[in-house]
UniProtKB/TrEMBL annotation:
Organism this protein belongs to: Halovibrio salipaludis
InterPro entries attached to this UniProt entry: Peptidase_C39-like, Peptidase_C39_single_dom, TPR-like_helical_dom_sf
NCBIfam families on file: C39_PA2778_fam
Protein name per the record: Peptidase C39-like domain-containing protein
Record-linked Pfam families: Peptidase_C39_2 (PF13529), TPR_19 (PF14559)
Signal sequence range: 1-22
Chain coiled-coil ranges: none
Keyword hit for Signal: yes
Keyword annotations from UniProtKB, A to Z: Signal
Residues annotated as domain Peptidase C39-like: 38-149
């Protein structure tokens, strides 16, 4: 078995040696080299690279954790390792938003330059004989064609870029950054960020989801999904007046969004504003279900006007 392993690894290296010079992506403002200083390092025990790599990222975000404390959360004994879904779930459980990167080297470099360690998955074997491994990218050096990793028992390991790219490709270019919900990754785009925020909301982490939606709204004020998510998260936390205000703003900014009108109508009906609720439902060309009887002072109900069509 050891001879077979050696032969296979030799074959991988020979194949890599025949490859052309790797192309570093062009990125305006990107430096020739960069290393994130002060990223903690945890040596990886056998088959437990997942807990060690995750603890590295959590500690960098000032989350107290150790590989030992994460084993039960992410290590799957039957698999002899950690699955990506467990890694993401554990990050969320510790209050961080797990953001998937685009499958390209440039995304990793931008995040590193912004001070965000990148959790990557590699296949150190072959497609038909995989050896899965987690590492944390903390730097790069274009001039020397190197990527800098915290990996296995080696802190700040300088790895040639070509074998790194090959092993990363064999793991389907899986890469994540994990940030607090008030901090966007350098490569953040609306849909992946809002999807990650929605995942936190579904897990019941409502204050964190609310913050993630507010962060998105500050960055992308014209993204109706950000305000929609914020309004829903406020409502789920019992902040009905704030939710109502957000839904009213949403229907003014994005009147074509039917779901916004329907949620506004439902909230108005529960507030005891049946007339306003029916108007809101009518703006969505939808009949409102039987509304409850008015409660309290209906003069406090907002006036709803459909946009001109």
């Amino acid at each position: 078995m050891h001879q077979l392993t050696a032969l296979l690894l030799a074959a991988v290296l020979l194949l890599g040696g025949c490859a052309s010079q790797p192309q570093w992506p062009e990125h305006t403002g990107s430096s020739a080299s960069h290393v994130i200083d002060g990223v903690p390092f945890h040596p990886q025990e056998a088959y437990q690279c997942g807990p060690a790599a995750l603890a590295t990222v959590l500690n960098h975000r000032s989350v107290a954790s150790t590989p030992e404390s994460l084993v039960d959360q992410v290590y799957v004994p039957e698999r002899g390792g950690s699955l990506q879904v467990e890694m993401v779930a554990a990050a969320r459980a510790h209050g961080l938003l797990a953001y998937p990167l685009e499958p390209e080297l440039g995304a990793i470099l931008q995040e590193v330059e912004a001070g965000n360690p990148v959790l990557v998955m590699q296949n150190l074997g072959l497609d038909w004989w995989p050896q899965w491994h987690y590492a944390v990218v903390i730097g790069y050096d274009r001039g020397r064609d190197r990527i800098i990793l915290h990996t296995d028992t080696r802190p700040r390991h300088s790895e040639p870029i070509r074998p790194f790219l090959a092993s990363w490709a064999r793991a389907d270019h899986w890469a994540m950054v994990m940030t607090p919900p008030d901090r966007l990754p350098a490569t953040a785009r609306p849909l992946p960020w809002l999807t990650a925020a929605s995942d936190m909301e579904e897990l019941g982490q409502l204050p964190l989801a609310e913050q993630a939606y507010r962060t998105a709204l500050a960055r992308w004020p014209d993204a109706p999904a950000a305000r929609f998510g914020l309004a829903n998260s406020l409502y789920a936390q019992g902040e009905r007046e704030q939710a109502l205000s957000q839904f009213i703003t949403l229907t003014r900014e994005a009147p074509e969004l039917t779901a916004g009108w329907l949620n506004l109508a439902t909230l108005l009906a529960r507030r005891g504003c049946p007339l306003a609720a029916r108007h809101a439902a009518g703006c969505a060309d939808t009949a409102l279900p039987e509304a409850p009887a008015p409660r309290g002072n209906t003069a406090a109900c907002p006036l709803i006007h459909c946009p001109a069509k």
